[in-house]
Amino acid sequence: MRATAVRRTALAASAAALALLATACGGTSDADKKDDKDAAGGGSSAPKTPAKTLTAAELEKATLAQGDVKGRKVTKAGPADEVPADGVTVDKEACLPVAHAMYGVAQKGSVATTKRKVIDEPKAGNKKSLEDLADGEAEDAFKDAFDLTSTFVALNSYEGTAGPDAFAALKKAAADCAGGFTATVAGTPTKVASIAEEKVTGGDEAAAWTVTSEDDGDKAPFKLVALRKEGAVATFFSFNLAAAGGDVTFEVPAEVVAAQDEKLA
Question: pLDDT per residue over 28-61, tens digit each?
Fold first, then answer.
């Protein structure tokens, strides 16, 4: 398994896809100006008051489980999915919160963490073998087989104002690093070419982005989502095999985000 989260996500998605296929065949006041500045800089809209902190047991109960998201398989992340905070470095310090979110690393103030992998189940389709399909049908069938999205979900419980602060720091970092940066894990660099804001709703506040990675001129899109409810912050990092090849586009994993939002309510 590769060292970087981007490569690991791709590999996990590929392995999961093959495994699943095998089994399933006016005027502006000073206050207004400040609000506009905070929004542009990615500031959190949350009040600076202590938010409810979930215990480890409460966080586990609020974590996604099999059956929570229709058409997806939910499993616990394993040791190979763990990346220590000090194992992530960036060439632009301001971009570290984004890199941490990509790798599922908790920010300062986290008291409990759970991690899950959510993978699309293969769609029921043509049962013909590839040999029996026409050229166009075979190409479409192959593309559909890899049109599966894998999402890595990290759910963290924070003390005091650390949850709102972590969310605000991620939003600011995504805005500041829209032009890209390079993250390195275990000596292996991953180049992020761009970060573009997407639309998402949920929790007390939520934000989403398309994170485009680049390797030797080849670009691949990822989706990054952050959802905060009280002192709990969930991050979602998604990859689609077919989208990486440029054959399809894929959206923010809205159903996964909604399912997590519901469990935090």
Answer: 334 444 444 444 455 555 555 678 999 999 999 9
The pLDDT tens digits for 100-141 are: 999 999 999 999 999 999 999 987 664 555 566 566 565 565
Q: Hey, where are the domains in the chain?
A: 5-23+51-123+130-264
The H-or-E segment that residue 151 falls in is: strand 149-158
Q: Is 116 left (phi over 0), alpha (psi -120 to 50) or beta?
A: beta
Judge: domain 5-23+51-123+130-264, CATH 3.40.1000.70.
yes
pTM, entire model: 0.79
| Dist. CA 221–CA 249, nearest whole Å | 9
Which residue from 223, 229, 213 is spatially nearest to 254, judged by alpha carbons?
223
Kindly report the number of other CB atoms within 10 A of residue 121's CB atom: 15
